[in-house]
Structure prediction request, 476 residues.
Amino acid sequence: MKLKKILFLTPIILLLATAGLLWLISPIANGYTAKYLCSHTFTSKLDADIALERYVKPMHVLFRGVVPEIDTVSKEVTVKYFGFLMPRTAVWREGCGCTLLVDRTANDLRKQHEAAHINHASIAADTTNALWPLGNLVNRDSLHDTINWSAIDHILDKEMQGQSTTGAKRNTTLALVVAWKGQIIAERYAEGVDENTSLLGWSATKSVTGALTGVMVKDHGLDIHAPIGLPEWADDVRKDITVDHLLRMETGLDFDENYTPMAKATEMLYKCADMGAFAAARPPAAAPDQRWVYSSGSSNMLADVLYTRVSSSPEAMHHLAYDEFFNRLGITTAVFEHDESDAFVGSSYLYMSARDWLRVCKLYMDDGVWNGERILPEGWVQYSLTPTPNATDACYGAHIWLNAAQDPADRQMPGVPADAFMFKGFQSQWIVGIPSKDLMVARLGVTHGEERWSPEEVIVEVLGVLEVKRKVKNEK
Prediction:
């Protein structure tokens, strides 16, 4: 009798457990899919079917149940699990990219956008006939160096051909660009992608949010060492949190940087109208400066601080990002996407071409000076590239990853010089600068599961070719 009861209850328990799991994961799966497909289709202007099959569904076995509807007229993407469960919608707006709806309707979001009159399309200088990075021309022969260019080409071709594009787990490089001595020497793109395609940097976005903070320091008098002073922090150790703590990931706030359905990072990105406010509401786990914990919440709080300090308007925030930063670097492909509060998603949602990502990298290679004009304040690059005291193995500065561990075995890229710095993001986005070698590499793409892509092999091989040239020159 007891056995019959167990046999009877077992399928019911399994059914309830499955229903509970779907209830937890479907809002996240639908939200991720709606946001990603919206941005992929309308911001990057790439094929939505490819994005769904290659980039979204391999995220998790349960993502295979998502069913999207793409409205190319309204530029909206709505996703329902199994075609009916927990619908989520993302809306594209000119100048703002895609925003995942949480509390507002699509019409409300559009009216808010129309009121802001956001326009950041114009760049004064005509850069058509200038070499990259000041313009858009690429001509490696202008370097006047005797280089084995076929060897360089072979390295990039091998990387593009060696990726996995079948099965449940996929590794796709969408853009791979190498620059040396301040000029692009090789670039490769996946089918449908070119030098003007805006591509997602995920957490590489954090480094640009850090750069915008530098602009605020130089041009708007922001004091990064003054307490931020949120009223809700007044009665505990959070009252001492500064912008410096946000930049160095040493706020002490309790925030778990993982992406399971119940994690705070996932809840912030896919369930919150104001991501910065969500992160700011986290309780303290330690006093500021006592521990280093990588946190997307810190970057979204930082974006909220910038938004508030430039008068809490989308027009002013766009002026800061585009007129005072992107346009001055000749960046034409940037789309910094918003949450519903109208602040940028400073942790994760910046789209730019690989060439434009490298332009930001070059700004840091050149101590914050662009074409003779200082963009970032004196000392900002040194500050950003100085290891945070509590960061493991000297791996992090101020919103920039470092390769600075004393023991090469402890570095993120053991075979790469210790002065390398990285703008790095989820799914193996890498923008790498190596000042001692005057080399930069950008890789944007998608990886899943246990697969990881590291630029180390490409960098070592490219440097091997360049060093052969240098050795021959010295011997002469």
